[in-house]
Amino acid sequence: MPVFLDTSDAGFEHGFAALLSAKREDSPDVDDVVAGIIAEVRARGDAAVCDLTERFDRLSLTPSELRFSPEEIAEQAARVPDAERVALEQAAQRIRAYHVRQMPEDAWWTDPEGAGLGWRWTPVSAAGLYVPGGLASYPSSVLMNAVPAKVAGVERLAICVPTPDGVVNPAVMLAAQIAGVDEVYRVGGAQAIAALAYGTESIAPVDKITGPGNAFVAAAKRRVFGKVGIDMIAGPSEILVIADSENDPDWLALDLLSQAEHDESAQSILICDDAEFGRRVVAAVEARLETLERRAIAGASWRDFGAVIVARDLEEAAALSNRIAPEHLELCVAEPDVLAAQCVHAGAIFLGAWTPEAIGDYVGGPNHVLPTARSARFSSGLSVLDFLKRTTLARMSPEALGAIGPAAEVLARSESLEAHGLSVTARLQRLNCGPKG
Ligand SMILES: NC(=O)c1ccc[n+]([C@@H]2O[C@H](COP(=O)([O-])OP(=O)(O)OC[C@H]3O[C@@H](n4cnc5c(N)ncnc54)[C@H](O)[C@@H]3O)[C@@H](O)[C@H]2O)c1
Ligand SMILES: N[C@H](CO)Cc1c[nH]c[nH+]1
Ligand SMILES: [Zn+2]
User: Which amino acid positions bind substrate, per UniProt (predicted)?
Assistant: First the structure.
């Protein structure tokens, strides 16, 4: 049974604090294992990647087999049934149309002192895109990673995707083809992240690693940050549904289970304003769990991390949601826009009972790679910006240097950085002595 909390109970704060601090990932055990894996890959390159793939994915490979050949990709992609191909193309088109709008503008202006100032956006040269493949397979995550990278103009896109027991999902290959990915490696987990960050004999290093994954992938991304850029921590999935009692409990049960079925470490929470309605949703979840194909995973997630919270009203529900900072927030209420304005810490918001979160996972347009484990307090879902860097630009005319240089000289002196000041002084002296250089 999930925890059932009521904000009017005396022990509520205690129970809510326990819910917020429940350890779903990031355990010292996982981090120790990941540190060892990264060290092995750094020391032994391809040989370590092959050994680890055999150990964790039960797949024996030689270094030359790590990368899918173009022929294998084409052969796999050709197996995808038409309906799936059409759906993937529609998804890609909608994701592209959404992300094109995120492309930021360069800027350039001349200020009153005559200084030319601005900035320019340029893409990273190579991106490593992690596509999970342990408990489920994610063609949709290929599109969510690769389409924004392409829109940003990244030159080289390399995917790492585990293929446990050597089983390949043809739709993953088709999605890679549709998105224009350059390289696909059958490597997963922390070893994939280490290979992308540090490089091996067969996997060239990248500049930025993006994409979701389980606790091992998330821990590895944390550890390689600095050597490469990362997007965020996108770990086990989460959903928070705020619902009034006008909803169909079965719809909400399915929405909660849609994220619980990703992983035993996933988390699904309902906040409602009526205890009796909350109990009806719990009953609906139990009924659906009996027939769901992935009931073992979804049931464990619901039992260990699921929660129902009864709030006094929707305003209180929004305040609790802000403290949770969920990856996905569904607002199944009469006026979702009004409530959304109060919900300021969430990766993605789904407005109204007709917007199941699953639409966002596949075809809505916004990205489904989103911050988890309360990191929506300070980070955002994957976007075109994750694949871009901003370089600032400045150009002084002699007049502009004359106007602002003296202040730089003063500040350099106050920091005792003599050469800094002299680099300005030398130019100002030339300026004061006649012909400009
Ligand atoms: N937040 C998001 O945006 C988002 C999007 C999609 C999926 N997800 C989440 O991504 C996760 C995908 O997880 P998954 O397991 O299906 O695939 P995965 O590819 O992330 O993990 C599989 C890999 O984990 C490694 N691994 C497994 N057990 C290990 C162990 N004991 N020691 C060392 N390494 C081990 C293996 O190398 C394996 O290849 C789920 O939690 C899902 O909820 C999140
Ligand atoms: N809900 C996941 C993000 O947490 C994304 C996904 C892909 N496929 C299905 N769901
Ligand atoms: Zn999902």
Answer: 237, 259, 262, 328, 361, 415, 420
